Each structure stands twice: as C-alpha cells, then as structure tokens.
Write a sequence for this structure.
C-alpha cells in the first residue's frame, strides 16, 4: 500500500466524523509520512508499519463518539457511542447493550405510566354518558385528578432520571473502553 | 505481545517519554517502535485522546531540518497522571514478577 492508497482508505472510513476532526487526524498521518520519507523510508514501509487504515479510523471514530457523548448528552450521540463500542468486541455485547436496553425500557415504561395517569381524567367523559350517579362521577373525578398529579410528578422525575442516566452511561462507556484497553480506573 | 495489554502500556510509554522533554509525533512513534513491535498508527489516536483530556498541549515548530514538527508537551495534570500510572505500573509489574518467580520455583521442586 502506498501513501495515496493509505489516505484514500483512511478518508473513506473517517467519513462519519466532522470535517475538522477528519482533517486534524489526517494531518497527523501526513506529518508522519513526511518525516518517514525524510528519514529515507519508502511509502510502502511507512504505510505497512502504521497498520491497517480501517482499524486506525475505527479507533479514531470510537474515541470521538465517546468524547462527544460525554460532552452533550443527547440520545443520538449516546446510541452511536454504544454502537461503536459494540464494534470493538462481541464480548462487550453483554456488558454494554444489556444494561442499556434494560434501563431504556424502564424509562419508556415509566413515561407510559405517567402519560396514562395524566390522561386518566378523560375517563370522566365516558362515565357522563353511562348513567352513573353523580356521586360516583364526582369520586372518579377526584381519583383521576390525584392520578393526574402523580403522573406529572412521575414524568418530571423520569426526565430528571433519564438525563442522569445518559451522563452516567457515557461515563460507564468510557470506563468500559478503559477496561478493554487494559487500563484501570 | 498481547494487543490489549500493549495498548494500555502505550499510554504509559507516551507519558514517560514526554516527562523530561517535549517530543513530536514521529519521534514518539519511532522511539517506541524501536523497543517493541506495534501498529504505529495507533499512537496518534492515543495522542489525540490524551490531548483532548488535557494531559497534553501541542505546538507546531518549523524545522530547518526536515518537515514541521507537532510537539506534545505534558500539562500539570498530565504530569500528575503520568506519576500515578508509573506508580501503578511499578506495583503491578512487581506483583507479576513475583508470581513468575514463584511459578518457576514451584516448577523446579
């Protein structure tokens, strides 16, 4: 593989990164080639000892997503970080994907419960036409209003919890990466 | 050498090499690859990460001899991190060496 082939491979696999990140990474390797050529090595030698550009790109992309997930905790970036981590090893599937899915399911079901509670006063409309006594309609009204309150509190708490979770999970992914790399902490 | 193991150790090597003087990318890669076999390309993502985490700052120097050089300089935080890792490494390698020696002794019995 010569210099051109190395860079075209690298560029193809770096496309998922923002332009400035791509350029910064490519500049590092450009510099490396220049120094190597200056020292009298051939392009093929340099490319060979750098290693597979696809693997290099994958490493850069993973590092970037991990960094990114920690900075702004949005669902999309954390999902992407999860997916790239998975690319690093099948073993990781159990340690990353399983807790992630479990907690996301919990969050979604809590939202479903709070939505159901918030919407519960609507059931009064149905009872109005069912010919029940006004006392039972009133009782239902009070109960559903309480549920509405609980639903709102639960929803707010759930939003807070999911934000915490995203932050925590980004940190977990990072430490998981460190374990994979063989570092402690 | 085992790939994962080597990766972890690479961080330590890079930090140790920059303890006493700033070094540029090619120099770091070259110095390490003289000692043991690595995919040289993996050092640069490592350097980028350590820089982003605030352990390094970088500056560019135009060289009269050869291409421009991007130098890596340890920050105060980087210095501390390096010291920590060196301590950890010493404990770890001492323990492993001890286990190896004990292993060899048992073999001889």
């Amino acid at each position: 593989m010569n210099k051109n082939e190395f860079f075209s491979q690298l560029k193809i696999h770096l496309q998922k990164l923002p332009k400035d990140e791509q350029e910064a990474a490519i500049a590092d390797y450009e510099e490396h080639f220049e120094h190597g050529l200056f020292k009298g090595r051939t392009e093929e030698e340099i490319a060979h000892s750098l290693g597979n550009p696809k693997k290099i790109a994958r490493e850069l992309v993973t590092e970037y997503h991990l960094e990114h997930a920690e900075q702004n905790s949005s669902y999309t970036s954390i999902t992407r970080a999860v997916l790239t981590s998975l690319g690093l090893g099948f073993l990781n599937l159990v340690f990353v994907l399983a807790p992630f899915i479990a907690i996301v399911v919990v969050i979604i079901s809590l939202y479903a419960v709070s939505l159901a509670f918030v919407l519960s006063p609507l059931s009064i409309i149905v009872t109005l036409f069912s010919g029940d006594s006004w006392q039972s309609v009133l009782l239902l009204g009070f109960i559903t209003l309480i549920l509405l309150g609980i639903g709102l509190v639960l929803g707010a708490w759930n939003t807070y919890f999911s934000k915490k979770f995203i932050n925590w999970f980004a940190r977990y992914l990072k430490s998981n990466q460190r374990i994979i790399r063989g570092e402690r902490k | 050498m085992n790939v994962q193991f080597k990766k972890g150790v690479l961080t330590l090597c890079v930090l140790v090499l920059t303890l006493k003087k700033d070094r540029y990318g090619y120099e770091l890669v070259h110095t390490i690859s003289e000692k043991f076999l690595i995919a040289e390309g993996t050092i640069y993502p490592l350097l980028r990460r350590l820089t982003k985490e605030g352990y390094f700052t970088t500056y560019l120097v135009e060289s009269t001899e050869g291409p421009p050089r991007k130098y890596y300089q340890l920050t105060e935080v980087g210095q501390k991190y390096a010291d920590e890792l060196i301590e950890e490494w010493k404990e770890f390698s001492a323990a492993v060496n001890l286990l190896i020696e004990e292993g060899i002794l048992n073999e001889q019995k």
